[in-house]
Write a sequence for this structure.
């Protein structure tokens, strides 16, 4: 039986050390073991980096069980494979190549689009236990796994959960303005659409709130693009949680614009949760 565990990719860079610290804290918070992975062209190169990582973790968390793995091959394929069965996979955002330098160009999106478990991308300069709220970007009822992860994350941290649901109205045929406000067919259609969109997160959130009564939930709906709205909310949050909404592409699945924007511009760490197809 495979033990619950958190996976972290390291490459010896300073930013990968920060990812290692976050991953260790996450493993302790969950009460699971930490698996430290280094993907290299030659396995002989991994020894010193992995030994240094273990030493650092044991100084900070002497009770935490740490397992190391060196894998010959590319970092994306290695981490996608290691993410299967993991509670969480953690990477950094910058570095001198290797795993910690993943979040540039198509490589970052390939990793986020293919991992089998939630992916935590360490961005910004937040401390792991700063007491800030968890931010959830919710797009629809098919995001229930994403919402569940956000509730569990807020519960583990003992912080409030901020839910941001964003929508932009669909095209409505132009019409002459009505003399009476909100009584023209187009205005009624827009109002009806707004009520329907507002109700999308409430159904899922109500069920999850009942299961997690200790979590203080702050929910709001905005009529702007979800990527921009979430990005503006990230400076004051511990992490932002979004679903991996895939778009079809001739080269394979690609992430939607919300996750794409946050992975490159968020002011706080980003968790991308795979959505079951």
């Amino acid at each position: 039986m495979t033990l619950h565990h958190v996976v972290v990719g390291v490459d010896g860079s300073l930013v990968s050390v920060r990812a290692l610290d976050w991953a260790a804290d996450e493993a302790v918070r969950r009460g699971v073991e930490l698996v430290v992975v280094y993907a290299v062209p030659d396995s002989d190169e991994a020894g010193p980096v992995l030994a240094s990582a273990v030493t650092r973790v044991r100084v900070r968390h002497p009770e935490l069980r740490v397992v190391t793995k060196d894998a010959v091959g590319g970092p994306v394929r290695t981490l996608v494979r290691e993410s299967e069965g993991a509670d969480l996979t953690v990477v950094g955002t910058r570095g001198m190549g290797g795993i910690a330098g993943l979040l540039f160009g198509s490589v970052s999106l390939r990793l986020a689009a293919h991992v089998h478990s939630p992916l935590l991308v360490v961005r910004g300069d937040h401390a792991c236990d700063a007491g800030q709220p968890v931010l959830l970007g919710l797009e629809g009822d098919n995001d229930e796994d994403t919402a569940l992860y956000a509730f569990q994350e807020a519960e583990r941290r003992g912080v409030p959960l901020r839910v941001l649901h964003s929508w932009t109205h669909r095209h409505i045929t132009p019409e002459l303005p009505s003399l009476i406000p909100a009584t023209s067919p187009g205005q009624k259609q827009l109002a009806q659409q707004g009520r329907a969109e507002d109700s999308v997160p409430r159904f899922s959130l109500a069920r999850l709130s009942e299961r997690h009564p200790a979590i203080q939930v702050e929910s709001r709906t905005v009529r702007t693009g979800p990527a921009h709205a979430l990005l503006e909310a990230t400076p004051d949050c511990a992490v932002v949680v979004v679903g991996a909404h895939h778009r079809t592409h001739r080269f394979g699945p690609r992430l939607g614009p919300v996750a794409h924007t946050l992975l490159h511009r968020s002011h706080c760490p980003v968790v991308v949760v795979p959505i079951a197809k």
